[in-house]
Request: fold
Amino acid sequence: MIQVDALRFRYRGAQTDAIDALSLDIKTGSLFGLLGPNGSGKTTLISLLSGLLTAQSGQIRINDRPMPEERRAIQMDMALVPQEYAFYPRLSVIENLRFFAGAQNVGAPLRRNRIAEAVAATGLGGFEKKRAQHLSGGLKRRLNLAIGLLNAPRVLFLDEPTVGIDPQSRHFILEAIKRINADGTTIIYTSHYMEEVEALCDEIAILDQGRVIARGDLQALLGHEQGGPLTIGLSPGRTASDLQPRLGDIPDARISDSEISLPKCPQAQLYALLDRLAQADIGITRIRYGYSDLEDLFLRMTGHQLRD
Amino acid sequence: MPPVAHLVKKETLLLLRDRNALVLLFVMPAIFILIMSLALQNRFAAENGVKLKYYLVNQDAGPVNAQLLDSLRKLEGFSAIRPSSPPATLENHLADGDTRFLLVVPKGFGSALMSAQPESLRISISADVTPQTARLFTASLRATLGRLYLRQLAKRSGRSAASAPDFDLVNRLIDVQSTYTPRGHNQFPSSVQQNVPAWLLFAMFFIAIPLSTTWVQERDQGTYARLRGMGVGAPTMLAGKLFPYVVLNLLQVALMLLVGVYVVPWVGGEQLTTGSAWGALALVSAAASFAAVSYALLVANLVTTGEQATIFTGVANLLMAALGGIMVPRFVMPAAMQAVSHYSPMAWGLDGFLDVFLRGGGVGMVVDSVWRLGIFGALCLLATGAWMTYRRGRAGG
Reply:
């Protein structure tokens, strides 16, 4: 369990907080997505959670241990895969893996097993002797991920792990991440690729200007369960004055000649409304229910694009 | 194997695979030592028969002129060329070749030497001749003319050859000796003996460039953050850099000494005499390496880009070298500069190496230099560790 409470962090010389009174809970074993545009505070939050930065105020507890007081013990149990290719290009794949395992004090017998597991998990078999600088972009991403698996972490931070690679490699990495999570590792995944987060994560938080502006289950956030905005396009030939007597009793409904819309509509109300339209013999041309995707959700909540 | 051993192994592998850095670290200093030892030589030229050439245009005749020409032929350090071109032409071409002086003996010079209005020798000196060399040439000519004048004076006063004054007496009244006594013989140290330790030390401190560039790269690539995220502490990271770079620095020292001993004589210079105080040499080398690498680690942590590292190291090393007596001997500096020079690590290192190479010193003699270099290195490491901790602790470091 990762618990973050009222966390605040400001970079030296900055005018505003990079992380602003942020609170968050991440369940053990979840695959948690951190979404936000560039500069929203995703990488800063990960740096704080992994002990690379120290917050000015607020609390972090990871698996019941406080950060930074028990930083060393926490770091033994976690791994950070940064968005940069954080390895040595002039070393081979196996030399990089041996080095990073050794640097974490993983003992020799265990080291061999861990390296073999990491190579298998990331599909790097056959590339062990190749210099990292000669790997393709996709293989470099896999090596970056493999290094993060060497200490068999209980918590794994993945910062934009698929940036700049081809679709095939991305698919492989996403599948590998699913398998790692299925083995019990809690994964905190940051990306500004919404489709990746939608496909992978069971829970997400959307960050903007250092604050969590939305968080929770993905389907719930998209409004597919608790009720999102609804727009129903109506067949031509009706006027708003015709429709008003038949549908005017629906709270918050906005009715025009061509459509009816509600800012928030639970699923039960949606079905009831569709029944009434059928009974009144009002034809439907289109239905838009909830947010179409995270981009849409983000746009409606903040007024700007997620990829700004 | 502890984590630090893995860091040392990684750093060694990276260094061995960076051919450009190896060229920079080994070949460049070797060439540097070679060129500086030869280019800045002083006694080297005189002792190996190298003479500065000058054009001699003689328009005079007679017995006095013959004596003058004979004396000029024996002029130490200079060699006359007798061209057929007129003086005006020669003067225009003084800087073209390797001849920088023109001496014209005018017609009637010999006959008018003892008259009330003697003729003057005309000397033209190329503009690119240093004032010291120009003074050396004119002083040699004055001495020659002085002897010629006295000889003519003695002849005119009617003394016999047996009772002629001893014109060379002045040369025997001074006895110049050096404190440099390799193999028990008193002799002047060669430029190689003085220059190799100086430029060796200068090159050692340039280790800051590859080290800080690598460190900056690690920061930019995220490996530094990754290692910190793995719980690798500042002491382990510093030790992982310190050991391989000190070894590399010591290999540089060995290579540069080998250049002094074997390569410099091969290209016509004098051989470096290392003496037999190997313990003292090893101690000074290790202390200088420790100081240079610790200083490099501090620079690497203070700069934020590779460009900054290169510029800062270049300028700081030149300043340390200028203050430390690498470029100009400290004893010729003004008093205030000499006082400041006591705070240059290069001065401490140079003192240590000169103790070994010129003064025949053993371990006891180099202790002071070693101690100063060691303290400097330790302070640099402490400052680096403190800076790393501060940067991590400060907001946004």
